[in-house]
Amino acid sequence: MTHCPYCxxxxxxxxxxADAPSATVRPDPAFPVxxxxxxxxxxxxxxxxxxxxxxxxxxxxxxxxxxxxTDWDAALDLVADRLRELRARHGADAVxxxxxxxxxxxxxxxxxxxxxxxxxxSQIDYNGRFCMSSAAAAANAAFGLDRGLPFPVTDLGEADxxxxxxxxxxxxxxxxxxxxxxxxxIVIDPRTTxxxxxxxxxxxxxxxxxxxxxxxxxxxAVTEGLLDKQYVEERTTGFEDAxxxxxxxxxxxxxxxxxxxxxDQREAVRLLAGAPRAYVLTGRGAEQHSKxxxxxxxxxxxxxxxxxxxxxxxxxxxxxxQGNGQGxxxxxxxxxxxxxxxxxxxxxxxxxxxxxxxxxxxxxxxxGRSAYELLDALGxxxxxxxxxxxxxxxxxxxxxxxxxxxxxxALDLLVVADFVPSETAALADVVLPVAQWAEExxxxxxxxxxxxxxxxxxxxxxGVRTDLEVLQGLAVRLGQPAHRFPTAPREVFAELRRASAxxxxxxxxxxxxxxxxxxxxxxxxxxxxxxxxGTPRLFxxxxxxxxxxxxxxxxxxxxxxxxxxxxFPLLATTGRLLAHxxxxxxxxxxxxxxxxxxxxxxxVHPDTALRYGLxxxxxxxxxxxxxxxxxxxxxxxxxxxxxxxxxFHFPGPGTANLLTGAALDPLSRMPEFKVTxxxxxxxxxxxxxxxxxx
Length: 694
Known about the structure:
Helix 5 (133-143) packs across helix 13. The longest helix has 19 residues, at 72-90. By secondary structure, the chain is of the alpha/beta class.
């Protein structure tokens, strides 16, 4: 038994087969999260093991500009020599590391340790910055602790009402819908998605106005006498300051800004407040904005006002996206964090982790650049001259994608560890072939904070190494003792337990033995004289702030960075499709998934198509101030007439992130993926523009 390689549900699967060609998968009916269900991606996951272009040997770019096969010693010697040279010439921060929310806990932990000990660089971040960072910032501020769902997924199945703000689980994590059959759904999304089609109430705001809508819902909760005054008085602080912002967002003003009718606003609040068991859940649609942290905080405010968090049967949560999006941000990949969700600026945290690592705390670097800022600085006078990428494909997934590709090309050294030749690997100077999900041991942490065992079915092909072996090989060549970077996942996890002990994400009481015995363990799970059972439900007695109270946030709406004008009159938003995952590097190699969604498209309302001379199925060019995308038109009445939609799974001229810009949330440093001002025109009459604005 193991778990699906894709989203944060981490559906349990029974994987069998003697080798990659014979591997098959079926769902584990005993696992409560997916309850015997899998989505199309999960059912076809073994196909990725059979990818015909699987990387099987290290490759180095030669003088002719071509990647040519080499052996492991030659590849690692080359990388280590170049890293030493660049560090000697430009300092430790001349080397950057870019990780992934898909790495196991062990690999995420080892990667952070490698960056800060073997490289002594502060320049490490990961693609989870593009996923969970805004919700994490809001949850840490409100509750003192960030766990995607501070309750088990199964609790949702007993709810009466669930509000989904900017999430489409019917496509992005279909097995979750088994837990959303009973509750009435309130869906906030500018598109009529598959999830919205199931909703009792669908609110369709203008993209980028979710914050105004959340403020308006809080306004109505207060003015219509639905505030849980006892809960607010006993379990929270800061309500008055938050109310001073929300008081100005009366329903008619909210309707004018968001386009959501007053009657729908009132109905949403009435449904939530009147439900004995209710949840507010946010997703990337509300969070991937330059004000995403404030938007998530505003929905937390609404949940607090109604007395939902910290109650059995109710609460607030966010639907984590990547497979290990939760664990990946807890153990040191993030620029400002150390293992156990400790902050790297905290002297006590530095001392504790340095003690586990056997190094001087003063030798640990400080916080580095966030993901986009790291990519933006590559190859510049002040930025890294080398980058090591593990499990990510920023050429497709990062905002301002053409600019990011230019920055990667400007590096003195780009090293990519992956198992398929991704678009980022195609730019690399050195490509290192690493093991896939079914070929490695480890742990993952799903969206509810449950720590899960990833078990190995197959041995990696000859010539392929694990990420842990790659890190050890480089660390030794950089002068580190081999024992400091173990390659056995069980040994790495034992060290992770010690490093996380006492932190917000405390794994010290979790062990492979307990997990293998079938125990269900949610963090925090500290070690102690008494065996801790784990914490499936957080905040039932108190929140994680010193005074035990949750904090309301004082936030106000502001416009998005990109506002439509005469040149770019429409709003573009991006998202996922049922058949694909993230940058599509894996799923585009599965024939059935590629057949289901073979290429890029732009979804356009028929009235909008008529206005701009667009025809269904015909090629079009979508332009923004940052670049242009080529895609076929798909007419749909499922979205607003002022909005177009593009999936972000496709490379080349269909890369949706060629359109997105560089605006960042000031707290989370989340890029503004979900709203970009664009123009759409038939491709025959268009003059595509380059990667940069004039």
